[in-house]
């Protein structure tokens, strides 16, 4: 692949986003668990719960700082690397990001300081309230960002203005309650809860293997396994809902995930295994499970699912329709809007397909001069990389179900076997700590790579979205970002590992005193 302006811009943003998302899931999940632990402390006044809250809060704080720093850089990249995109859809995309900054981020940032420095200055109930504000702020941040991202996947509530050449917001509530955004929000935050749960269970298992901080570890596993089990089920349910929404809004993405080249008669089967070949336009060695994909994608046994080849034919028809809109747009622009009603009606009839005509802009200077062969080639550009989509999705799902099984086992052992965890379970819990991060990154890859060649699905091709920067500048800044973020990641991991090795250092005497006061009295021998 030749790395030009657009490819390097995409790679730089992808690197920043994927580094950023190494920190976000743990922040989302730990914030809820910290608030829950502190609530138990306020209700019981047992110092062990305060100690747990402070210990896991230390790890939360280290992670939170790195998440904020990478997130701020990513937002600046919209203006620096994607200036045409920012101009084209800024009225819609900017609204949820502005609300996120004004409402959620300031709520989170304000109360996180109070939480860390207010232990001895606030009453327990007030401090607990601050902890819940941090958790709510973190999750509200995710909500508004995912509303913005959901609009890119399913643009609703907006119209194109031919005079300003921009998308304009016409229905904020349609953007807010976009079904793609809502499903994506719950799916993403639930994945964050699973990440934090696996992390807490893994670290606690490490303590149990070494016989250290046993009381803290057992209680932490009890909280995390229950929380993580519920979150894992939510991830699966909302992942299924995302697949159903893709059937209506992103058919090409779903077909690429399935390696489905030809339209399947109802009910469609699920490709459990296969090797998609994009040149041959077939999936070799496919192992199919009957009916499953029909149930996931259509919720029925009677609706067929379109394959990639038929979807490409549909894209070709939309490109030709978009060319009609493009020609009418040129007339409207040349006459400064003073055109006949027929021209306006023609534009309005075909304007929904204008983005498809713009796919030709990377191939010819004037889309109206495109040949039939070029139109067909542009239609095939709407197919993302099928092989990476196919296997990334399956690895993500496999990791998800494995984590569900482990959390179920740890929950069952905690509640029905008196917390007698076998050595193998504790060791597996330690070794799978990286797994939720791998699954989360794969999920974002499927979501964003699967949207290509669009920045905004069906409206704005990625090739038109980038700023006019030099390849040299992008290559240098990309190298700088990767070097800086890798250094920060190494520092964060060293700080986290140092804090874990050190263990809980707060309220040690209070916990020991409470345990001494409430230790069972040994029976005295008879005289």
From TrEMBL:
Keywords: Cell inner membrane, Cell membrane, Electron transport, Heme, Iron, Membrane, Metal-binding, Oxidoreductase, Transmembrane, Transmembrane helix, Transport. Its main location: membrane. Pfam families: Cyt_bd_oxida_I. InterPro entries: Cyt-d_ubiquinol_oxidase_su_1. It is an enzyme of class 1 (oxidoreductase). It is a multi-pass membrane protein. It is found in: Cell inner membrane. GO terms for molecular function: oxidoreductase activity. The chain crosses the membrane at residues 20-43, 55-72, 92-117, 129-152, 185-209, 221-239, 391-412, 424-447, 467-491. Its EC number is 1.10.3.-. Belongs to the cytochrome ubiquinol oxidase subunit 1 family. This is Cytochrome ubiquinol oxidase subunit I. It comes from Rhodobacter lacus. The lineage of its organism: Bacteria, Pseudomonadati, Pseudomonadota, Alphaproteobacteria, Rhodobacterales.
């Amino acid at each position: 692949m030749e790395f030009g302006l657009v490819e390097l811009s995409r790679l730089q943003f992808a690197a920043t986003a994927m580094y950023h998302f190494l920190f976000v899931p743990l922040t989302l999940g730990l914030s809820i668990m910290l608030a829950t632990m502190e609530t138990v402390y306020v209700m019981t006044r047992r110092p062990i719960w305060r100690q747990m809250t402070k210990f896991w809060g230390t790890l939360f704080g280290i992670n939170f700082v790195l998440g904020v720093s990478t997130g701020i850089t990513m937002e600046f990249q919209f203006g620096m690397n994607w200036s045409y995109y920012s101009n084209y859809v800024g009225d819609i995309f900017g609204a949820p990001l502005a609300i996120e900054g004004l409402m959620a981020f300031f709520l989170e940032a304000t109360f996180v300081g109070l939480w860390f420095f207010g232990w001895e200055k606030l009453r327990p109930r007030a401090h607990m309230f601050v902890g819940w504000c941090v958790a709510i702020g973190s999750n509200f941040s995710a909500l508004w960002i995912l509303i913005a991202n959901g609009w890119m996947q399913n643009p609703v509530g907006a119209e194109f203005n031919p005079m300003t050449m921009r998308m304009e917001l016409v229905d904020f509530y349609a953007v807010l309650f976009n079904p793609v955004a809502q499903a994506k929000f719950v799916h993403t935050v639930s994945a964050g809860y699973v990440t934090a749960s696996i992390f807490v269970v893994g670290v606690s298992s490490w303590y149990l293997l070494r016989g250290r901080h046993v009381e803290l570890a057992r209680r932490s596993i009890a909280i995390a396994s229950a929380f993580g089990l519920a979150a894992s089920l939510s991830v699966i349910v909302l992942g299924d809902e995302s697949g159903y929404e893709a059937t209506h809004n992103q058919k090409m993405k779903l077909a690429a995930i399935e390696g489905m080249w030809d339209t399947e008669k109802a009910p469609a089967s699920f490709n459990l295994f296969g090797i998609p070949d994009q040149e041959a336009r077939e999936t070799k060695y496919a192992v199919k499970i009957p009916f499953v994909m029909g149930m996931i994608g259509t919720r029925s046994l009677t609706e067929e699912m379109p394959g990639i080849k038929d979807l490409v034919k549909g894209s070709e028809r939309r490109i030709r329709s978009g060319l009609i809109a493009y020609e009418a747009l040129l007339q409207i622009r040349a006459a400064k809007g003073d055109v006949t009603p027929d021209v306006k009606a023609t534009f309005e009839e075909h304007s929904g397909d204008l983005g498809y005509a713009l796919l030709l802009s990377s191939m010819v200077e004037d889309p109206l001069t495109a040949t039939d062969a070029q139109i067909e080639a542009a239609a095939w550009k709407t197919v993302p990389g099928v092989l990476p989509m196919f296997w990334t999705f399956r690895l993500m799902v496999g990791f998800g179900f494995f984590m569900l099984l482990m959390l179920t086992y740890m929950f069952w052992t905690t509640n029905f076997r008196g917390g007698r965890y076998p050595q193998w379970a504790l060791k597996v819990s330690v070794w799978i700590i990286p797994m939720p991060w791998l699954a989360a990154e794969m999920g974002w890859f499927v979501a964003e790579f699967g949207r290509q060649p669009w920045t905004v699905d069906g409206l704005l091709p990625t090739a038109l979205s980038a700023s006019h920067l030099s390849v040299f500048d992008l290559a240098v800044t990309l190298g700088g970002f990767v070097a800086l973020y890798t250094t920060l990641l190494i520092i964060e991991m060293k700080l986290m590992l140092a804090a874990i090795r050190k263990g809980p250092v707060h309220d040690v005497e209070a916990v020991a005193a409470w345990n001494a006061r409430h230790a069972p009295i040994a029976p005295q021998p008879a005289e």
